[in-house]
Design goal:
By secondary structure, the protein is an alpha/beta fold. It has 2 domains: 174 residues, 3-Layer(aba) Sandwich (Rossmann fold), CATH 3.40.50; 125 residues, Rossmann fold (3-Layer(aba) Sandwich). It is built from 9 helices and 17 strands.
Amino acid sequence: MPNNILIVAETRDGAPRKVAFELVTVAKQLAQGMGGKIEVFAMGSNLASAAQALAQAGVSKVYVADDAALDASRFAPELHAAVLADAIRAAQPAVVLFGATGVGKEISARAAAKLDWGLVTDCTDAKFENGALVLTKPVYAGKAIATVKAKSLPAMVSVRPNIFPPVEANASAAPVEIVAVKMVNVRAKVAERVKKAETAVDLSEAKIVVSGGRGVRGPEGFEPLHALAKVLGAAVGASRAAVDAGWVDYGTQVGQTGKTVSPQLYIACGISGAIQHLAGMSSSKNIVAINKDPDAPIFKVADYGIAGDLFEVVPALTEELKKVMAEK
Ligand SMILES: Cc1cc2nc3c(=O)[nH]c(=O)nc-3n(C[C@H](O)[C@H](O)[C@H](O)COP(=O)(O)OP(=O)(O)OC[C@H]3O[C@@H](n4cnc5c(N)ncnc54)[C@H](O)[C@@H]3O)c2cc1C
């Protein structure tokens, strides 16, 4: 069996998601140890331009399942997983890489069950050492890091977004192969998708995240955070306490039961640093904590800590950053 690596590239609104290009970086790292070609599989509808972008990511081949029934607006996990499993059977890779996103988690688990392959989820590193696939992944809500060795190949791996740098899609174009889509009966599919009115930065792909917790005291307490986020081009996140209080919607929750983010910069405002919150953000490259309690646990994981009232610190920071940005 060839030692090929197959990347399952997610697309959104006709373009590949950033994590797809991050997975190419992971695949290149793996290929150094195991050799083999790097191939990509994408499924959805109207994927011509997405396929072209993926084909220029320095890969050997792009397989595309392009059918209206696979449109993201009608996401049907049973159908998507079945189409994916067919593509994997045909491509015969040794390793399949997914982004550990909502969609990635859903289809990877289903495809692994269909093919009876092992799946290691939410990895933050993947290497091929002495003939073995070795994965690193946070466990116990980020309290410990596990090193997992795949007992055998083929295997599937999902990789946490924002950990690896994305490759530039500027290589000469690889061939694109359209694969046949075999329909299956689905028991459930998305009936309607309601797009949020605001065109804010996507939290899970943001390079900078400004998050608020119970310390912001109410929905209006998020306004200074939005002002700071605007200056930085950041997304706004929240702790579960802020979400449960109804101040912000669930889509902004960071943590064990919310989104996992790994931005370059995470600014936690009025967040105590409960383990369940850390589970969703502790892999951020730089963590800044603003908390009026100097003993708050968040300071233990923070690279920079500001012990102070967020309602004084955040506006002052915003004003200073505005000046810095204006000088640029
Ligand atoms: C199964 C399970 C799953 C969970 N999943 C998640 C999850 O996904 N995400 C998550 O976040 N939580 C999750 N939680 C909840 C978690 O345990 C904490 O309760 C929650 O993270 C606390 O949110 P917080 O830090 O905003 O609030 P608190 O712990 O109440 O902290 C508020 C902080 O704000 C500070 N503060 C107050 N006023 C100011 C001010 N003016 N300026 C600066 N600082 C101020 C305080 O000093 C304090 O440290 C989960 C819990 C369970 C049991």
